[in-house]
Amino acid sequence: MASASLQFFAFILALFGVFGDIAATLLPNWKVNADVGSNIITAITQMQGLWMDCTWYSTGMFSCTLKYSVLSLPIYIQAARTTMVLSCILSAFGICITTVGMKCTKLGGDTDSKSHACFAGGVCFILAGIFGLVPTSWYTREIISNFLDQNIPESSKHEPGGAVYTGFISAGFLLIAGVIFCTSCFKRQQGAWIYPPKQHHFSSTEQERNEGYNLKDYV
């Protein structure tokens, strides 16, 4: 029962991780720059994401521009796009697989099949967490290095936005969920290896008696 409740807790963490992963991929505030000018129509907040760049104006207007050209983007943005999409796909697969493999569900067949499905779902969550952690770390490193560069003007410097923190937290949730699923299945399999099913051993006299009874049946 404890293992089933632990798996359910890991499943809830994985759900939060999936939703946060998708939100971090789509949000435009991976890096934020505040620029206040003297004009009436002045951009007060500029945000840049993986797919679009958005701007808040002092008049309350909000405009976004999509990034259509992929080859013109920096390499860390291209890598972040690819890895975040892979993270979303793997985490969605992990949700589907662990739904079949959890103890509290009636899907997946026998105990061994559910254990294998649960382990496969945990591996998907761990890979999704790694794929989500790499782009957020790389993106944050680029922001910090540009912020500390003295040759870059102050107006061109940015800070990490909310999408980066959402990606970090989501990757942590997915990693924790994957480790819990893998360890719960590993403990179950290890218990089966340590305590094999008991087999009945008959003594030689009992075997001779059984053979004697079988021979009498044929006479």
Features:
219 residues; alpha+beta; Butyryl-CoA Dehydrogenase, subunit A, domain 3; five-stranded antiparallel β-sheet; 5 strands; 63% helix; 11% strand; elongated
Structural notes for this entry:
The protein has 219 residues and is of the alpha+beta class. The protein has a domain at 4-27 and 71-194: Butyryl-CoA Dehydrogenase, subunit A, domain 3. Helix content is 63%, strand content 11%. It has 5 helices and 5 strands; from the N terminus they run αββββααβαα. It has a 5-stranded antiparallel β-sheet with strand order 4-3-2-1-5. Mean pLDDT is 81; it is low at 36-40, 189-197 and 213-219.
Entry summary:
The protein is 63% helix and 11% strand. The chain has helices at 2-26, 75-101, 111-148, 162-194, 204-218, and strands at residues 31-34, 43-48, 52-57, 62-66, 159-160.
Describe the strand arrangement of the main beta sheet, using strand numbers.
4-3-2-1-5
Give the tally of β-strands: 5
| Shape descriptor | elongated
Structural class: alpha+beta
User: What is the ordering of alpha helices and beta strands?
Assistant: HEEEEHHEHH
Q: What value does the average pLDDT take?
A: 81
Q: Major β-sheet, in short? A: 5 strands, antiparallel
- Overall helicity: 55-70%
Give Rg in angstroms: 28 Å
User: Remind me, CATH topology of the domain at 4-27 and 71-194?
Assistant: Butyryl-CoA Dehydrogenase, subunit A, domain 3
Low-confidence stretches: 36-40, 189-197, 213-219
Termini gap: 55 Å
Number of distinct helices? 5
* Top-tier CATH class of the domain at 4-27 and 71-194: Mainly Alpha
Quickly give the CATH architecture of the domain at 4-27 and 71-194: Up-down Bundle
Strand content: 5-15%
Subcellular location: Cell junction, Tight junction; Cell membrane
Function: Claudins function as major constituents of the tight junction complexes that regulate the permeability of epithelia.
Family: Belongs to the claudin family.
Pfam families: PMP22_Claudin
